[in-house]
């Protein structure tokens, strides 16, 4: 909105419509700033150590918002340029200054709020650690039940906070690390419960103590990693040394080689030779592995030798070209570059084939979990010799799977997938010995139900990780073959092809710059309407009301259509837009049904108006649905259809802006004094609500195993009687 104001064209003629649009944008900015600052002030009141800084930033933001509103108060002026009143037309620099102050102060508020969120996560982590220390020292079931109940509640709080944070992270690598740490905490919470119970039941059993200590240690490491990610720091100031994969090494090497086409002098031959040496050193992970097939090993060694020869040839031609730039030499250089890159591509393909074929074979071989089943049976029988035999087999299996993860990391293709491979390797490395100690405990106490339950929990974690590896392998193959699309699917958006079989036959069309510009104005109107609808829905006391929920859903979809007009968001093609319009129309029809239901509750004299508006909405939604479903062949027809869909969506949103206050008024009237307007919510509650109903569907809160975790806490009440 600010960009729209700053970039508006100074035309000599200004229509009433232009003046009204400018005023509306200015008012929308001021209202948005007002809502933002209200939250900032609430945060300041709850956090005294940052109150002064936050209050100053909020005052600055509010002042800037009011200045923008004053400078854009032009709709009532017939001749703004001849009036003494200062406006955007007479003082554009004033708007620029106010905009800069606004952006600066808003940034300050966001940074201060972020510091508070980080502090909340650290405080929550400290609570969890303190309770864990108490859990380690308990000696009675009754005391354990009480403390674990508290621990469960603290873990749920930590899960919510870190889930929000994970969604807020922009760095995909950090997001993957956070997801891995939170996955460890989720699984370890149940392990901690059964391992502690086993230790309490068998206090003199060494294997039970080792088993429990392993869980506590792993949870502490995961908690520490979460704090490292949140605070962007490493213990003792260490720098994180990310292991280099073969894929990333080859990618960087090829970029440098291809850069020689533009500049012959930007790097030295020693740099290129060193880069190749590092890549070939990593291929030794494959050639030295006992699990790499003879055929793959031979091919990798052959290609490594060839890569050295191709680089030697490239360096020779390159050095000559530096001294004498003849046409023949430049052609020879181009051939050398192509041959070097081709050789590296073949090497990449070979290591990918070696890693993925090994993974596929191992996962298929271990899919029946024979060793785990045998450990459970021999443990219940109390057969220590058989348990020892199968623990050796599990150790061998663990080594195979750890090696598989190391090799897959080299060919994963993206940093998040690399981190997932490292997490999987750690999981197998740690869970294997924990299964062994749990099985030994059961073999020593074969009649112990809790020891049996404990072994089951660790075996389930192993099986779950194997299942995850199958999904990871599929994703790695997708990246290699270029099949990977969007990073994530947002359930609030329709997925082309999922709901409508006819979509398969239609080719998506992208709009060019000129056509984007034509619908940009219409898109801005749609954006302003979504702000109006959101303002109206916020006034409802009952946020669970069906009318509010449909209104919020329609606003979110209309906002994604506005983003499309800017060439942004998740609607990438016209076909995505048409499908979104269909879903929007369906949501509008559902809203009309809710209006019919409301008409049964209101007084007779109010009913006709409400039913009339509901029928109007149904008619508009049918028109929009028909437009979205109509076929459009050719670029011109497609653009006309895009324009019509957005125009009809705007008309529905305009009607929605009138309907929401009408419904609220009728409900207030009907409830005989029970107010429909709600007070401003506390900022903490508002954050959770906003996450679910914000314009952008990207704000989805993921919390690890919260349902299951809450169930564990609830079920603890039965532990003592057992």
UniProtKB/TrEMBL annotation:
Which domain of life does this protein belong to? Eukaryota
Taxonomic source organism: Ploceus nigricollis
User: Ion transport: is it a keyword of this entry?
Assistant: no
Q: What keywords would UniProt list here?
A: Cytoplasm
Query: Which InterPro entries does the record match to this protein?
Result: Alpha-catenin/vinculin-like_sf, Alpha_catenin, CTNNAL1, Vinculin/catenin
The family annotation for this protein states:
Belongs to the vinculin/alpha-catenin family.
Q: What is this protein called?
A: Alpha-catulin
State one molecular function term (GO): cadherin binding
Name the Pfam families on file.
Vinculin
């Amino acid at each position: 909105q600010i960009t729209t104001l700053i970039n508006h064209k100074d035309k000599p003629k200004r229509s009433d419509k232009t003046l009204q649009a400018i005023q509306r944008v200015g008012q929308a900015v001021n209202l948005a700033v007002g809502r933002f600052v209200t939250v900032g002030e609430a945060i300041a009141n709850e956090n005294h150590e940052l109150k002064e800084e936050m209050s100053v930033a909020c005052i600055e933001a509010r002042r800037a918002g009011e200045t923008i509103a004053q400078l854009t108060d032009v709709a009532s002026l017939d001749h703004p340029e001849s009036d003494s009143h200062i406006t955007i037309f007479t003082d554009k620099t004033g708007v620029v200054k106010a905009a800069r102050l606004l952006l600066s102060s808003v940034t300050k508020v966001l940074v201060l709020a972020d510091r508070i969120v980080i502090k909340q996560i650290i405080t929550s982590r400290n609570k969890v650690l303190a309770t864990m220390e108490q859990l380690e020292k308990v000696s009675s079931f009754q005391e354990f039940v009480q403390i674990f109940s508290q621990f469960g509640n603290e873990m749920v709080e930590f899960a919510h906070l870190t889930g929000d944070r994970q969604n807020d992270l922009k760095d995909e690598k950090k997001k993957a690390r956070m997801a891995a740490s939170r996955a460890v905490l989720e699984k370890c919470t149940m392990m901690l419960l059964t391992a502690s119970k086993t230790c309490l039941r068998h206090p003199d059993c060494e294997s039970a103590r080792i088993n429990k200590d392993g869980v506590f240690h792993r949870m502490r490491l995961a908690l520490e990693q979460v704090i490292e990610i949140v605070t962007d720091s490493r213990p003792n100031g260490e720098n994180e040394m990310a292991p280099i994969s073969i894929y990333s090494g080859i990618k960087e090497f090829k970029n440098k080689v291809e850069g020689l086409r533009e500049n012959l002098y930007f790097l030295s031959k020693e740099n290129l030779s060193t880069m190749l040496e590092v890549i070939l050193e990593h291929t030794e992970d494959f050639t030295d592995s006992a699990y790499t097939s003879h055929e793959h090993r031979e091919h990798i060694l052959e290609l490594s030798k060839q890569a050295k020869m191709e680089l030697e040839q490239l360096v020779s031609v390159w050095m000559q070209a530096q001294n004498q730039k003849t046409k023949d030499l430049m052609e020879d250089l181009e051939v050398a570059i192509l041959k070097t890159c081709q050789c590296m591509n073949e090497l990449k393909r070979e290591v990918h084939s070696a890693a993925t074929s090994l993974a596929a074979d191992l996962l298929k071989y271990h899919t029946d979990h024979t060793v785990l089943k045998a450990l459970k049976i021999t443990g219940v029988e109390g057969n220590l010799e058989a348990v020892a035999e199968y623990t050796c087999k599990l150790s061998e299996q663990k080594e195979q799977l750890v090696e598989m993860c190391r090799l897959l990391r080299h060919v994963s293709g993206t940093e998040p997938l690399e981190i997932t491979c490292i997490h999987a390797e750690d999981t197998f490395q740690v869970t294997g010995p924990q299964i062994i100690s749990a099985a030994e405990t059961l073999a020593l106490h074969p009649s112990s139900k809790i020891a049996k339950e404990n072994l089951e929990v660790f075996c389930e974690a192993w099986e779950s990780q194997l299942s995850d590896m199958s999904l990871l392998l599929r994703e790695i193959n997708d990246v290699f073959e270029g099949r990977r699309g969007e990073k994530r699917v947002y359930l609030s958006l329709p997925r082309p092809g999922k709901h409508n079989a006819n979509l398969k036959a239609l080719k998506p069309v992208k709009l060019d710059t000129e056509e984007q510009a034509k619908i940009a104005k219409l898109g801005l109107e749609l954006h302003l309407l979504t702000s109006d609808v959101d303002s109206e829905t916020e006034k409802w006391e009952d946020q669970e009301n069906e009318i509010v929920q449909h209104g919020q859903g329609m606003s979110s979809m209309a906002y994604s259509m506005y983003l499309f007009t800017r060439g942004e968001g998740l609607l990438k093609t016209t076909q995505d837009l048409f499908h979104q319009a269909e879903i929007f129309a369906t949501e509008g029809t559902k809203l009309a049904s809710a209006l019919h239901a409301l008409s049964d509750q209101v007084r007779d004299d109010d009913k006709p108006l409400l039913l009339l508006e509901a029928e109007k909405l149904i008619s508009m939604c049918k028109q929009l649905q028909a437009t979205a479903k109509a076929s459009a062949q050719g670029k011109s027809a497609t653009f006309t259809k895009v324009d019509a869909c957005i125009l009809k969506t705007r008309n529905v949103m305009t009607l929605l802006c009138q309907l929401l206050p009408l419904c609220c008024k009728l409900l207030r009237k009907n409830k005989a004094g029970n107010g429909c307007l709600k007070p401003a919510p506390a900022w903490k509650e508002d954050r959770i609500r906003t996450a679910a109903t914000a314009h952008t569907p990207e704000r989805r809160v993921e919390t690890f195993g919260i349902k299951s975790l809450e169930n564990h806490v609830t079920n603890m009440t039965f532990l003592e009687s057992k």
